[in-house]
Amino acid sequence: MVPRDRADPAEQAVHHAILRAFAAHGRAPTAADLTAVAAEFDRSAEHVLARLHDSDVIRLDPSGNIASAYPTSATPHRVRIDNGATMDSSSPTMVGPSVNVSPYTPWGIWVRV
After folding, report:
1. pLDDT in tens, 92-111
2. By its UniProt entry, which InterPro entries does this protein fall under (predicted)?
3. Which of 36, 39, 65, 66 has CB 3.0 to 4.6 Å from 28, enough for a Cys bridge?
4. Could you give the CA distance from residue 21 to residue 61 in angstroms, rounded to a whole number?
């Protein structure tokens, strides 16, 4: 993990775009999906994703795809967002104040949070 004194604006913007994609679609965006956001800061999506990975904000799989982004997770903790999308989340209450989620147990029972 790379310690930081303050957040980099490009990294913040890309991280927020990742979280919005998880909330809207229930899955991680691709690097291509994030190209326009990173370009606003004269960066490549791949560069910003690597920095976020090095800072332990996201995790990239061996192919460079987003495997998880705090608070979403690749672990089997499924949540359903009010819009009907589902996603894995390490902390469903951290998705955001304007997004209501319902996690379910490993037995498939939905629990409203």
Report:
1. 444 554 555 554 444 344 44
2. MerB_lyase_sf
3. 66
4. 18
Residue extents of the structural domains in the chain: 9-67
Residue bearing tokens 């890309």: 14
Give Cα 22 distance to the centre of its chain: 6
Task: Return the sign of the alpha-carbon dihedral for residues 64, 57, 4, 96.
Answer: positive
Beta strand residue intervals within the chain, DSSP E: 58-60, 66-69, 78-81, 86-88, 101-103
Count of Cβ atoms closer than 10 Å to residue 32 Cβ: 9
Q: Which residues of 12-21 are buried (b: 16+ CB within 10 A; e: fewer)?
A: ebbbebbbeb
Q: Position 92: which residue type?
A: P
The pLDDT tens digits for 19-31 are: 888 888 888 899 9
Q: Which amino acid is at 19?
A: L
* Average pLDDT of the residues of the chain: 75
66: amino acid identity, one letter: I
pTM over 0.90: no
- Give pLDDT, residue 113: 39
